[in-house]
Amino acid sequence: MRPSWTWGVGLGAGALVAAWGLFAPWAFLGLGLLPFLRLPFALGFGLVLARALFFPLPEPPWGAAVEGVFAVRGGFTRAEGHLLWVSHYPPLPDGRYRLRGRIAPPQGRTNPGGFDQRAWLLSRGAKGVLRAESAEPLGPLPDWREGFRERLGAGLSLEAREVVEGLVLGDKGGLETAYPLFQRAGLAHLLALSGLHVGVLVGFAVLGLYPLGRWRYLLALALLPFYLLLAGPSPSLVRASLMAGLSLLGLFLGLGGAGVVQALGLALFLQLLLRPEALLGLGFQLSYLAVLGLALVLPALRLPPGPRGYLLGGVAASLAVQAFLLPLLLHRFGFAPLLAPLANLLALPLVALLVPLGFLKLFLGALPAPLVEPLARGLLLLAGLAAQGPLLRWGEIAPPGFALYYLGLLPLLFALHRRLPWRRALLLASLPALVGLLAAWPKPLDLWMLDVGQGDALLARMGGGEVLVDGGRAEKGEAVVRALRALGVEALELLVATHPDADHYGGLFRVIEEVPVGLALLAPGFPEDHPLAEALRARGVPVVRAGAGTRLKVGQGEVRVLWPEALSGDDNQDGLALLLDFGRGRALLLADLPREVEARLPVGEVEALKVSHHGSQSGTSEVLLERTRPRVALIGVGPNPFGHPHPEVLERLERHGAEIRRTDQDGAVRVLFGYAW
């Protein structure tokens, strides 16, 4: 390793291993790097570990009552000496409030692909949530930045203003409609302030202050804290500012600019020393991986001069970033845009003009607006077009999957730097890919009860075919879609709505918008003009109204409808009773059926039972439990005024030896029946 890399890379690698090991102890295997990086690695590791152990983020007093006047900024406030996220519906805009509530721990992830509030808050230096029971607005907060924001938006249409605010200040609050387009186009990183924005700012300052000689570097350095205060200290902006600051300081002192890899390592060390928990932030991870990809790929390329070299360099830069980010994007979002390299190549000239013009607007107001408006609209148009492109879809990736991916990338990097013949590199890269394919070969036979609060949503993977039974309430539809993506479900062979209660079918509207469906099975109680039936027809999905005796082959399993035999006019009593036969086990799903129906079901022993009506006293009778003898009892339940699940039902299940799993306590629950080869 070259000496210029040693301290930067060593400090950064040591800090990374220490911070990572705090949350995943297996990361301490990275201590194997110590013989190669020696003192720098040991120093980075020791300082960050000591920072975390001796100055940990303190825990708030859980359950403590809080009442008083508080300033809320960006959703956070300070109470009892702790930074807390304010939980309130609707979310509170910035301002002063008289708040009353209690301090509670944040919620971890409860569904595959779900939001991990605990990790998100930790990455921002917070450990607790203030659950506000009342919030009385008292007035706005004084904000010295408001004048800059007004000048930035002056003379622009609403759409253009929102784009420019995102590009220059990282403010995505007004982009509710456009931001998903940027994500699906692979352009969302443009709205995360990073090296591009800092580079433009520093470049203009250094060029404009050229007559001042070396002092221009120091003056440019002074602009970085100002920009951090103006835009907010996002992880990517802090990283870019640290890297630029180190280079500017080196130039001012006559030491030369820091190399990209060395500056990246030093910035990583400093950020993790300040707050090791920052490692958990998605923005932090994406920012460092993107720059690492650029730093390791671009210097190894021999690009021709002129426009052709610029074009090839843009494509190479986009591909390098995508290569390093791909598994993380698939893991967190379930998809990666295949047109992202082309979209970024076309967007880069627009952004290269919009960012400096945006900086000018901060001071000149409406004067540059005639130039900014068409550029911003052009970027929006490009995002909309690219968002329609094909997507690579994938499920959640386990740590071994990440390890295999980057192990496969490593030989290619060696070949790119001419340290390994390409033929050997391709052979070595194919080995982790082969191991990954073999590991994914056996398809799971399992049943997932997803956490949708007070409602039901169950996914059955039956060895080559997936079945979704119900989808919770309408507001839970996005959570169901994210879970399907995380579990690698690209299409549903069968979608089932057990009965027309909103806590069972409401989320299915969102599902059918996002996921292809082969066949929909509706309970006979759904009328022809029901909104769900109409939505399915509008999507071209065949609809079958099933009754007792219906049998469908799905993958390597079978779905049998046991009930209803005839219609009574009662939605719960006319709901579907389903027996899912996985070949290596069976599951009985009872919707909201009452006990008088349970007694008439032609069913024997099963491995899993979806308890009727969220554990209501009206179902799960002694007769049913004696016949089915379930190993696992699943209860989909959330906060409710009905007393679900009823203590008598829980007592009966325990007496019959069933393991009780409930979504309000366990989050999403998985029952594994085996694997299909």
Q: Topology of this structure?
A:
Layout: H1 3-23, H2 34-54, E1 65-72, E2 76-79, E3 82-87, E4 95-104, H3 117-123, E5 128-139, H4 146-153, H5 158-169, H6 178-185, H7 195-208, H8 215-231, H9 235-252, H10 260-274, H11 282-297, H12 306-333, E6 335-337, H13 340-364, H14 369-386, E7 391-393, H15 399-416, H16 422-439, E8 443-449, E9 458-462, E10 466-469, H17 477-486, E11 492-497, H18 502-505, H19 508-514, E12 517-522, H20 531-538, E13 543-545, E14 551-554, E15 557-563, E16 577-581, E17 586-589, H21 595-598, E18 608-610, H22 622-628, E19 632-635, H23 647-655, E20 659-662, H24 663-666, E21 669-676
Parallel strand pairs: 3-5, 10-11, 11-12, 12-13, 17-18, 18-19, 19-20
Antiparallel strand pairs: 1-4, 2-3, 4-5, 6-7, 8-9, 8-21, 9-10, 14-15, 15-16, 16-17
Organism: Thermus thermophilus (strain ATCC BAA-163 / DSM 7039 / HB27)
Domain ComEC/Rec2-related protein: 167-418
Protein name: Competence factor comEC
Mean pLDDT score: 91
Q: Could you say what the CATH topology of the largest domain is called?
A: Metallo-beta-lactamase, Chain A
What quaternary form is this?
single chain
Low-confidence runs of at least 5 consecutive residues? none
How many domains comprise the coordinates? 5
- What's the gyration radius in Å? 28 Å
Spatial order of strands in the largest sheet:
13-12-11-10-9-8-21
The second-level CATH architecture of the largest domain is 4-Layer Sandwich
Main sheet?
7 strands, mixed
Compute the number of strand runs.
Answer: 21
Q: Report the top-level CATH class of the largest domain.
A: Alpha Beta
Supply the helix-strand structural class: alpha/beta
How many angstroms does the end-to-end distance come to?
Answer: 46 Å
CATH superfamily of the largest domain: Ribonuclease Z/Hydroxyacylglutathione hydrolase-like
Number of helices: 24
Helix content percent band: 40-55%
